[in-house]
Specification:
heterodimer, A: about 240 residues, alpha+beta, 5-stranded antiparallel β-sheet, 4 helices, B: about 290 residues, 6 helices, 13 strands
C-alpha cells in the first residue's frame, strides 16, 4: 500500500503515461498500516487440529524475511495463526500472552480454546475505531478433545468452523477447501471423515498451489498439529521466487 | 463479570494506564480492557446508558477537545462484513423471524454459515444486520445488560424497555461507522433499533440489502390470520426470493418462531435445493 499515488490525470487516452505532464499536487497521507502478506490455514478434525502458515514476510516488492512463521503457540492445546500487518500481529500476540498468564494466575487453570476465542473477540473489538489489521484463525482442541477452529475478522466477529483460510491467498484457498473438506459443489460423493495424515497432506498440497499463484505466499510452510499428545511442528520448503 | 458488578466488587488495577499512547483522555486506555468490560470513567457516576466497554481511539491527530466518537478515524485497509436479508413479522400465532446466513466482506463471501438470529432470552430473539462484528458484540452486551437487570430487579425487562436500553447504549456511537440494525422479536412485539438512533415498533420489518425483495413477497401474502405452517412458508419464500436476487444474501435460511411459550428454531435449510425444486415446479429446463 504505502505512499504511491497515481492519479488518473497522469494517464492519457491511450493508457500510456503522459510525458512531461505535471498532474497537480496529490496528497500523500501517512498510513499507520502496512501489508506484510502471508497466508494462514486451519483445519479441525475429530481429535486433532492443524494450523499452518507460510513463512514469508514481505512489503511491497521486497521480502523482509523468509523465516517468519505466522503460527503462535498459545497453550498446549491452542495455536493462533495471524497474518496481515506484522506490527499488529506482534502486539496482539503479546497482549494475548499477557492475558493468558493473568487468567492462569487468577483462575489457576489454562484458558480453553473457546475462552481464548471469546477473549480475542473483545480485544479486537476494543480497537473498533483503529483496528488491528490482522486476520486471525485459532486452531485447537475444545474441552471434549474434539478439533476446533475459530476464524475472526479484523474487528472481532468470530465463528467456529471446521476449516478456514485467512490472509493474502485466502480467496484462492477457501474454495479449494470447501470442495475437498466440505464436499461442496460435488454431487453424489461419499463424505469420508478426514484423517490426520490426509489432512496434513491436503494442507501441504494446498499451500504449494497457493505459492504458485500468490506472490506474497512462499518460502516455507510451518505446520502445527495439535493433538492430545501435544503440538507437533513440521517445516516444508515452498517456492522461493 | 456479571457477578462482580452485582456485588460492586472493585478490582484494584495492577497497573496504571501505560504511557504508550499519550492521550489526555485517561478514561480511554488500552490496557484497562484487561478487566473484561469496565465502566467508562470510574470517577463519574454509573449511568444505565454507559457503555461497558473501553475503546482505544487513535491519537494521530491531536485535537484539544475531541471526544471518543467524533475524532477523525484512520482509513481502514480492509472491508467489513455487510449485506444481508432479515425479516420479522407478527401474526395470530406469534412472531416469525427469518434471515439468510451469508456474511460478505467487499466482494468475498467471508462466511457462508453465520447465525444472524440470536436468542437473548427464552422469549426474545434478535435478528442482526449491518456490520458483523458490531452486531455480534452489541448482542453480547445487550444479553449481559438484560441479565443484570433480571438479577437486580427480580423481573425481566420488557421488550420495549430492552429496545430503549439498546438505543441509549448505541447513542454515543452515532456518527461513527458503527453499523448495527437489530430487530428485537418478542412474543407479541417487533421493535427495530438501529445505530442511527431509530427505534420503531411495527408489525412487519425487513432489514438489509435484500429487504426490498423480501417486502415484495411479504406484502402480497401476509395477513393476521395465517396459521403457523403458512407463516413459516411465507417467511422462507421471502428470504429465498431475496437471496435469489440480492448478491449479498444467500446460502441458507434460518427461521425462528416465538410464542408465549418461548422460541423454537427450525432446522437451517440450504436454499440451493429450494431453487432446484422451484425450477422443477415451473417445468423449466435446467441447463446441466
Amino acid at each position: 500500500l504505502g505512499l504511491k499515488m497515481l492519479s488518473a490525470q497522469n494517464f492519457g487516452e491511450s493508457g500510456k503515461m503522459k510525458e512531461y505532464h505535471y498532474a497537480g499536487p496529490t496528497e500523500h497521507r501517512f498510513s499507520p498500516y502496512a501489508f506484510n502478506g502471508g497466508t494462514v490455514l486451519a483445519v479441525a478434525g475429530e481429535d486433532f487440529a492443524i494450523v499452518a502458515s507460510d513463512t514469508r514476510l514481505s512489503e511491497g516488492y521486497s521480502i523482509h524475511s523468509r523465516d517468519s512463521p505466522k503460527c503462535y503457540k498459545l497453550t498446549d492445546t491452542t495455536v493462533l495463526g495471524c497474518s496481515g500487518f506484522h506490527g499488529d500481529c506482534l502486539t496482539l500476540t503479546k497482549i494475548i500472552d499477557a492475558r493468558l498468564k493473568m487468567y492462569k494466575h487468577s483462575n489457576n487453570k489454562t484458558m480453553t480454546s473457546g475462552a481464548i476465542a471469546a477473549m480475542l473477540s473483545t480485544i479486537l473489538y476494543s480497537r473498533r475505531f483503529f483496528p488491528y489489521y490482522v486476520y486471525n484463525i485459532i486452531g485447537g482442541l475444545d474441552e471434549q478433545g474434539k478439533g476446533a477452529v475459530y476464524s475472526f475478522d479484523p474487528v472481532g466477529s468470530y465463528q467456529r468452523d471446521t476449516y478456514k483460510a485467512g490472509g493474502s491467498a485466502s480467496a484462492m484457498l477457501q474454495p479449494l477447501l470447501d470442495n475437498q473438506i466440505g464436499f461442496k459443489n460435488m454431487e453424489g460423493v461419499e463424505h469420508v471423515p478426514l484423517t490426520k495424515d490426509k489432512a496434513v497432506q491436503l494442507v501441504k498440497d494446498v499451500f504449494v498451489s497457493a505459492a504458485e499463484r500468490d506472490v506474497y505466499t512462499g518460502d516455507a510452510l510451518r505446520i502445527c498439529i495439535v493433538t492430545k499428545e501435544g503440538i507437533e511442528e513440521q517445516n516444508i520448503p515452498l517456492r522461493k521466487d | 463479570m456479571a457477578l462482580e458488578d452485582i456485588c460492586n466488587f472493585k478490582d484494584k488495577p495492577t497497573h496504571k494506564t501505560f504511557p504508550f499512547y499519550a492521550s489526555e483522555d485517561t478514561s480511554v486506555s488500552v490496557f484497562t480492557e484487561a478487566f473484561n468490560f469496565k465502566w467508562r470513567g470510574e470517577m463519574t457516576s454509573k449511568k444505565a446508558s454507559d457503555v461497558p466497554l473501553e475503546f482505544h481511539v487513535p491519537s494521530l491527530f491531536k485535537r484539544p477537545s475531541s471526544r471518543a466518537s467524533h475524532s477523525v478515524s484512520v482509513r481502514r485497509p480492509f472491508p467489513l462484513s455487510h449485506g444481508t436479508t432479515t425479516l420479522g413479522f407478527i401474526f395470530q400465532g406469534g412472531v416469525i423471524a427469518a434471515a439468510d446466513t451469508r456474511a460478505s466482506a467487499g466482494g468475498l463471501v467471508a462466511c457462508p454459515a453465520v447465525h444472524k438470529i440470536t436468542p437473548i432470552h427464552s422469549h426474545l430473539v434478535v435478528t442482526s444486520s449491518g456490520s458483523g462484528a458490531d452486531c455480534m458484540l452489541w448482542e453480547r452486551i445487550l444479553t449481559r445488560e438484560i441479565r443484570l437487570y433480571q438479577l437486580r430487579h427480580k423481573r425481566r425487562l420488557s421488550i420495549s424497555g430492552t429496545a430503549k436500553l439498546l438505543s441509549l447504549m448505541l447513542h454515543p456511537f452515532k456518527g461513527t461507522d458503527v453499523c448495527v440494525a437489530l430487530t428485537l422479536c418478542g412474543w407479541d412485539k417487533l421493535i427495530y433499533v438501529c445505530s442511527d438512533g431509530a427505534r420503531l415498533q411495527g408489525d412487519i420489518f425487513s432489514v438489509g440489502s435484500g429487504s426490498p425483495y423480501a417486502y415484495g413477497v411479504l406484502d402480497r401474502s401476509l395477513s393476521w390470520s395465517l396459521n403457523k405452517e403458512e407463516a413459516i412458508l411465507l417467511a422462507r419464500e421471502a428470504v429465498f426470493r431475496a437471496t435469489h436476487r440480492d448478491a449479498y444474501s444467500g446460502n441458507n435460511v434460518d427461521l425462528f418462531h416465538v410464542t408465549a411459550e418461548g422460541w423454537r428454531q427450525r432446522q437451517r435449510e440450504d436454499l440451493k435445493e429450494e431453487y432446484y425444486r422451484d425450477m422443477e415446479k415451473r417445468g423449466k429446463k435446467m441447463d446441466n
